Amino acid sequence: LDKDGPTYGFEVVPPKGRRVIFVGDLVDRGPDSPSVLKLAMSMVNAGIAFCVNGNHDAKLHKWLSGKKVTLNYGLDLTVQQLASESEEFKQQVRKFIYLLPTHLVLDQGKLVVAHAGLKESMHGRASGTVRSFCLYGDVSGEKDEQGMPVRKNWALDYRGDATVVFGHTPVPEAEWLNRTIDIDTGCVFGGKLTALRYPENTLVSVEAKTQYAVPRRPMDHPSNPFYLSQKAFDDLLNIDDVTGKRIVQTRLRSNLTIREENSIAALEVMSRFAINPKWLMYLPPTMSPCATSDLDNYLEHPRQAINYYGNRGIGSIICEEKHMGSRAVLVICKDEATAANRIGVENDGIGKCYTRTGRNFFTNPSLERDFLYKVRNALSQFGFWKKFETSWVCLDCELMPWSAKAQALLQQQYSALGAAASNALPRAIEVLQKTNERQIEHTATVLQQFEARAKSVEAYQKAYRQYCWPVNSIDDYKLAPFHILATEGRVHIDQSHQWHMENILALSQSDDGIFYKTKYRIVDTKDEASIQSAVDWWLELTNSGGEGMVVKPLDFIAYGPEGLLQPAIKCRGKEYLRIIYGPEYDFPQHLKRLKKRGLSRKRSLAIREFALGIESLERFVNKEPLRRIHESVFAVLALESEEVDPRL
Are 623 and 199 in contact (CB under 8 A)? Predict the structure, then answer.
């Protein structure tokens, strides 16, 4: 187009880094089509706008070219308005429309703009069929009772990776459907003029000053094929989208393979136990432990965790206190209206608290409701909604006490083992003591072994008991958030872990006691004094009964020579490991065997699940269809069925 063409008196200064894309149909029905043309043409000529051809524009071009056309659907009004314009201007309009593209493919194929939309197979192609689709959509050739063309909703079956923005068919509200959005909200019919801000995928609308024309068919008429929201379409998931061997694309780690046998296991869990998939925007990854310590009396030691990052060029890391609780993901909405409009659920409260496998954390609905409202009220008291310009949030947390969720595990495994050992060992020791008094050979050695085993059992019972306390009301819970994962329009992985901790600390100071303040340290991996200070802090935490700490790169996303690095590495204390590996794990013969443990599969699993978790969050924030979000969430659950030592 003519970059040096006239500006017609319009001088538009765009925000830095922004350009306008007009989605066609610049003319007809409005009060001043010539001025609209002048504005659009001046912006295109100045290089601050793009424009695609619309069917009304194409019809005007025919008239300007002297071809016979019927002056209806507003073209008669446009012709009247152009009567007072110069012949030179009319020819400039004719040339402008003639050079307009049928559609635009932008942002390396991630964005497609066409007046009436475009199926994936037509993106970037040029033909009469493509041109017709771009101008008129998927028409059947039939007429409805109003005499209007019957249009098929091509977006219902769209499965492309590109976002498609279009207009042509007026709708009451611009709503996403399968990565497509119709932004024609009927301004000329008294509706709104709507723009999509890309890549944020946020909408900006201006109400029409008046109704300039009466539509032949109301925008909310049932026959309108695009009067369908993503929420309604998402009510049904297709099993074919998650079964069998699948390749899931992620931004952080390219393509990930999900094996068929893992998908079968995930389907069992998801179909029988998981909450409504619309709430499941994220499942957290597993976490790998640090490399085995080379110190004699330690299986895990913070130096190995710190060295993992330091040896890969990460200069600053954060060490966070590790809580002995249960991993919990919280999705909290400001109100039930947000849950209905943004999450797509009706009469299901203001949020959900769910486990690493997508199950309801609470089995008591009233307790869950009280808990969620208490967290919501703390967020409101803090001014969270205004500060983050959001009406919902996804938090990654630990919920304590451990016994609140792990009661069955405590009773059937830990407590049962402790009770059996504490009853049997004293009797065995008593017999051995009497036998030793008779000075029978080797009895003293065996007695010492059993006395050591008894002390180990005492330490074992003490280790798990300190993480348990009675839960009689909501006030007995403690929540330790460590990630503000996502809010409206943002996934906060561009912020450092220090930013997350500082904001969570500020939040915790405004509530009435539900939040637990997580301690943390920033460590310089190149400074021995800084490293030793972190080691001393870990010893202090673990010697006083703490579980240990989690070591992370200061940046949320970190890369090293081998690519994406571990998002976090846990380093557990000696006494906590007694719960995991058994009361006598630190006996020399056992410790020697345990130090041969392999971490490669666990580390691979942690990185893959991390990439999938971030992918599902980004898809939700970008308002992608549920099947796309669910694909990543389901893949995390599928990977959890891989054969990895659960003690790691």
Answer: no
Q: Is 549 helix (H, G, I), strand (E, B) or coil?
A: strand
97-113: buried (b, 16+ CB within 10 Å) or exposed (e) per residue?
beebbbbbbbeeeebbb
Q: Which residues contact residue 184 at a Cβ distance below 8 angstroms, ignoring those fewer than 6 apart?
A: 23, 25, 166, 167, 168, 169, 170, 171, 194
| pLDDT attached to residue 546 | 86
Q: Tell me how far apart the alpha carbons of residues 331 and 350 are, in angstroms, rounded to a whole number.
A: 8
Q: How many angstroms separate the CA atoms of 204 and 193, rounded?
A: 8
Query: What is the pLDDT at residue 512?
Result: 64
Which residue, among 599, 531, 572, has the nearest Cα to 311 in the 3D structure? Answer: 531
CB 609 within 8 A of CB 285: yes
Distance CA 263, CA 248 (A): 12
Q: Under a CB-based contact definition with an 8 Å cutoff, are residues 148 and 169 in contact?
A: no
Question: In this structure, which amino acid lies at residue 105?
Answer: V
CB-CB contact of 169 with 185 (8 Å): no
Residues of the chain short of pLDDT 70, as ranges, are 1-5, 140-141, 143-150, 221-232, 403-412, 467, 469, 511-512
Q: How many residues does the structure list for the chain?
A: 648
Angle of the 75-82 helix axis to the 55-64 helix axis, nearest 10: 50
Residue 631 falls in which region: left (phi positive, over 0), alpha (psi -120 to 50) or beta = alpha
90-97 LR contacts (CB < 8 Å, sep 24+): 90/64, 91/64, 92/5, 92/6, 92/41, 93/37, 93/41, 93/60, 93/64, 94/61, 94/64, 94/65, 95/2, 96/1, 96/37, 96/41, 96/44, 97/53, 97/57, 97/58, 97/60, 97/61, 97/64
3-state secondary structure of 171: coil
Eight-class DSSP state of 168: S
Contacts of 75 (CB under 8 A, 6+ apart): 27, 28, 56, 59, 60, 63, 69
Nearest-angstrom CA–CA distance, 536 and 69: 85
What are the φ and ψ backbone dihedral angles of 393, each rounded to 5 degrees?
A: -150, 150
Strands (E), 8-93: 20-22, 49-51
pTM over the 0.90 mark: no
- DSSP for 208-263, please give it: -SS--S--SS-TT-TT-TT---HHHHTT---GGGTSSSEEEEETTTEEEEE-HHHH
What the block records as the tokens of 28 is 């007809």
What residues form DSSP beta bridges with 332?
Answer: 351, 393
In DSSP notation, 76-133 reads HHHHHHHTTS-HHHHHHHHHHHHH--SEEEETTTTEEEESS---GGGTT--SHHHHHH
- Computed on alpha carbons and rounded to an integer, the radius of gyration of the chain in Å comes to 32
- In terms of Cα–Cα distance, which of 189, 620, 546 is closest to 398? 546
| Residue 17 C-alpha from the chain's centroid | 26
Place of tokens 């923005």: 165
For residues 464 and 380, the answer to whether their CB atoms sit within 8 Å is: no
Contact 25, 187 (CB under 8 A): no
Q: Given this model, what pLDDT does residue 495 score?
A: 97
In whole angstroms, give the CA distance from residue 384 to residue 355: 24
pLDDT at 1: 44
| CA-closest candidate to residue 51, choices 7, 5, 20 | 20
Q: Is 327 helix (H, G, I), strand (E, B) or coil?
A: strand
